[in-house]
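hi! just following up on the protien thing from before. the input was this:
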Amino acid sequence: MKEEFIYIEHENKYLTGTIPVNAIIYKKVTGIGATTLEIKCPRNSIIIEPNTPVIEGKVKKHVNLLGVTEGITTNQIMSYIQNKAIPYKKIMTTPESYSKVRKAFSLCSLDLFGSFFLLFDECHKLTSDVNYRGTITLPIEDFWKFKERSLISATITNFANYPVFQKFGFRHIIIQPKWDYSLKVNLYSSNNILQDVKSFLDSLSNKEEKVCFFINSIDLIMALINALDIKEVSHTYCAER
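and the predicted 3d structure came back as:
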């Protein structure tokens, strides 16, 4: 699949125009306003977001955006899509709540697949999270039924190599910044994570400084907290399951 490029000239400059349709979009930097661009775009859209907090945050910023999460009913969705005062309908939903959106359109006898653009945001989670969150793939079967649809992520996997995307004529678009966006990191090899974490914490000049660890194992998180005896000053954030 041939790569196409959209360039962003300057740092802190947001994406303009419209999100391309029928495309796999790799945005190499975050915070360029891709989701906001679609919310403001003059077309009907459904945006699938893997995480509820993102939806809640966007709903607070955009008046005519409907966020569909666990507490939203089908009747509420029907009222929204039948509201003629809203010229372009913008629905942001979790994968698990997408079925309510589809049901609402069916009950209203409206053409969901032909009249709405579907954007699957943070699409890399389809493969990275599916092992513990199988429901994240629920909308995929309908994804191919939409006349206009796209996938977007800043940490995209090798989606462009999947034959199904080539079969449907998808484009591979890279949003490329024209400045050096690399960040300096220190890489450590370790065969004793506990000792290295302890040494790191001991090396901090400000012992009151907040430190964030991103770890993909609850067992390892709890082992570190217990071994370092930092339970009283630690918080763990993770998915419900």
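The chain has a mean pLDDT of 91.
The chain is about 30% helix and 15% strand.
cheers
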